[in-house]
Amino acid sequence: MRGYSVRAGNPFPLFFLRCEHLRDVECNSTQTSVIHFLTLIYQIHSCGRVRLVMESALTARDRVGVQDFVLLENYNSEAAFIENLRRRFRENLVYTYIGSVLVSVNPYKELEIYSKQQMERYRGVSFYEISPHIYALSDNTYRAMRTERKDQCILISGESGAGKTEASKKILLYYAVTCPANDHMAALGDRLLQSNPVLEAFGNAKTLRNDNSSRFGKYMDVQFDFRGAPVGGHILNYLLEKSRVVHQNHGERNFHIFYQLLEGGDDDLLHRLDLDRNPQNYKYLVKGNCPRVSSISDKNNWKTVMKALSVIGFSDEEVQKLLNIIASVLHLGNTHFGEGEEGETHITTETQIRNLEKLLGVDGSALREALTHKKLTAKGEEMISPLNFEQAMSARDALAKAMYGRTFTWLVEKINQSLALKDELYHSSKGSSVIGLLDIYGFEVLQHNSFEQFCINYCNEKLQQLFIELTLRSEQEEYETEGIAWETVKYFDNKIICDLIEEKHKGIISILDEECLRPGETCDISFLEKLEGTLGGHPHFVTHKLANGKTRRVMSREEFRLLHYAGEVNYNVNGFMDKNNDLLNRNLKEVMCQSDNQILNHCFRREEVIDQKRPEMAATQFKNSLMKLMEILMSKEPSYVRCIKPNDAKQPGRFDEVLVRHQVKYLGLMENLRVRRAGFAYRRRFEAFLQRYKPLCPDTWPNWHGKLADGVSTLVNHLGYKAEEYKLGRSKIFIRFPKTLFTTEDALEAKKPDIALTLQTSWRGYRERSKYQRIRRAGSGAFISFNVFVLIRFIKGFIYRHEEYCPENAYFLDHVRYSFLMKLSKNLPKNVLDRNWPTPPPSLVEASEHLQRLHLQNMVMKYCRRIQPEWKKQPSEIFKDQKDSYPQGVGKREQINLKIVQTLGNDKVQYGVSVVKYDRRGFKPRPRQLLLTNTYAVLVDRTKIKQRIDYNALRGISVSSLSDGMFVLHMPNEDNKQKGDAVLHCNHVIEVVTKLAMMASKIDHVNINPGRFAVARGKEGIIDFVRGSELKVTAPRINST
Ligand SMILES: Nc1ncnc2c1ncn2[C@@H]1O[C@H](COP(=O)(O)OP(=O)(O)O)[C@@H](O)[C@H]1O
Ligand SMILES: [Mg+2]
């Protein structure tokens, strides 16, 4: 190779055209020095890639702040923190890290950083290699799930309007676009994405803070199969703000769907629903006096929602019934009452009752009665008592809220059915293949805060607690695994506030429940007094009565104040009891049960009416669902997105420092930074560190061939790092001060011109030599015409073509070599199976062989890189560190019966091995031989072929992660010729599976930790692998599918 590159006339075009292969070679550090040299030349000439390598955000820190807050020199200064955020925000750099936490500032404008190309940029790239991005976090989480085989979750927090929902949508989109698609679930990505507009239409509304504010909490699990393709999803919804259905604050709207229906629904539909296009005509839509929002197109969104409903799998009939309910809520809002002379209440709007009768399929007179009377059971006897005017109004509102709230839950269930791969698979998701996304209401402080804000802020307290525990814990764990001593950091533990709210018997929720259940005269004020009595003196609880003079002036007598970790909030107790009770009169429930609208039928169950037991109160239900959520999140590896809103006016380019400072404070970002910095500001895996800084030390440049830790040690010694500046862990270097890193980075920056100069000099030297030779050759024939000269030299060269390289044949051989290389550059094989390779001239045979080998290596490498990171290794390393039996799993050659060889005819056996096959029923072991040809595998019983498995048909290969030799060959269910999957055992399982996977080109279909296999059509078996001292096989569990 060395000789070739020096002698061949003009080899460079080839390298310039195919330089990415060479780069790959360099990355894999298998390069000869020539390849390395060429690679570097390539780097000089391909500016785009060089920029990517050189222009790290570390280098550009002065211009755009630091991309990771841990690199802030003055990490205790809030002002420095905010200044960094501001500088980056000004440059449209809305993302910044605190270690592995992503801080995101809402740009309030479309940035061109979310394209498909951007997704590709972040795919498979290490977190710190490239500027911070939501895609980097998404990709990192995905890779952690794949490589560490642990469920992950991404927790997105921030106040209303900070960009949580947008972030969650971007993450989902990233997975939908970049993950491999599953054949059977090709449409899943679509359905996952389409669930968003539907949930937003029914669960989002315009508030003062956000034109598209989520009024419910959402946790979504995305489930991936063993190849990393999304195969299922599941949504948990939390506490929808139902009160919005009947009331909106000034400047706010009801849920989007109402306006979408009126604006977007066609005339026929509105006619059928007896609706009129003007939202001002509906009492439930006028409270906020804000029918239209400039940033929202209700008409377009209506189309999107209708399309999304059909993609998700809602039938036309279901959509119709759903809209009947939405329209009914509006009719209910327009149902009015009058008071008779004796104070009895009656309905004055008969048209609305007729509409409700028609749309909900309920009995009109029963509904009329239920809206104006209450059914009571006293001492086992049923009594009907009339409602007064106010009671009738709240019964009506309670019905509207219940109908809407329950329909929303039905909607989520329906979406879940559409996203679920298989229920039992979801629930028994033992495989580490889930990424959870939490987009839940942010901390909310309004002018008037009620029960809803109380619940929302309580939820944020819980999440903060989780955040503290998990960030501290993971940091500590990292130091432990790396063997580095840990220093503790003080932080505010908000457990005291969580207890204040949720503690049994003594917490606010318990007191509220008690007051709701207590017989006798109870009201919101009696609840407040109870709170004062029980919680007076608590450092985080204040009321007007308990407050000092200054606080008293800013609190009303109906309020209590909680000193949340994020700030103080006054809650007005008015409505707390009603909202917690969330009562719907029994006779109204009865009417709904009898509805012939299937959705309502599903939402209002008979059992609920019969069951006398009181359901849990709203706050307790919420508390319990949060407890469950915490359990779910605790079982997963968390990543965090902390969203910040730069101003309250939803304007681009405006950075309101006071507002940002407040969020930085209550999101606990400074504490987060301190925790991260208490140990070491910067950490990096040995290989990444060495790769970046190796040019700074003659011993590590261009390559270090020893142990990575020794290489890093040599490098930092050469750089003069002091002992207190860094520590070497087991796989990472930890650097204590940013300054150390910056000095190193500056040294690298200073070194780059040198490196470039050396390379440029070499390149120029080469170019000049070639030029000189060309001129010399041309000059010697100046007296004859150039063409004749060339011809003569060509003929002469042809005559001497078999001789050693000499002046006579130099021109000819150069030309032939050049032509060959040019031809080759245009005809390189596109894949590993393509064995075509242009025939080289005799003088280039050796070089051609080298190139062919290199090219093949590069194709394999590129292929491996395209598939999953854990498969990047050599195929035979697939199992290293994943399968206990790896070392002994590689076997010897096998004797094949002659008869079998004859039967196989031209299909030569490439590989054979003894296996034990287990019967699908009974699970009896049968000794067999597994032989692999180029296109199929056969299972042989001495002289008979028992089963033939075509590679094309092979769906996958599964092995366990333990030291057993079991493996399963998955065959298509629909193939009648196949009896089911083959369950096999082999002492050389690593070898046999690797060979099979390679020969069948199914490397990416190898599944470690299978669980299931098909026994026969429609029957599934489950294999449980249990650690034990010996191999013992018992019959599998069989399921019908
Ligand atoms: N990354 C972003 N790029 C552009 N606009 C954004 C981005 N994040 C948020 N926004 C804008 O801010 C609004 C509020 O964001 P949203 O995610 O709904 O807030 P949250 O869910 O935190 O209440 C969005 O409707 C959008 O206009
Ligand atoms: Mg939201």
From TrEMBL:
Q: Which SUPFAM superfamilies match?
A: P-loop containing nucleoside triphosphate hydrolases
Where is each TH1 domain found? 872-1041
Q: Which Pfam families does the UniProt record give?
A: Myosin_head, Myosin_TH1
Residues bound to ATP = G158, E159, S160, G161, A162, G163, K164, T165
The record's keywords, sorted A to Z, are: Actin-binding, ATP-binding, Motor protein, Myosin, Nucleotide-binding, Repeat
* Molecular-function GO terms, alphabetical: actin filament binding; ATP binding; microfilament motor activity
Q: What is this protein called?
A: Myosin Ic, paralog a
Q: Which organism is it from?
A: Sphaeramia orbicularis (orbiculate cardinalfish)
Which taxonomic lineage is given here?
Eukaryota, Metazoa, Chordata, Craniata, Vertebrata
What gene, per UniProt, encodes this protein? LOC115433466
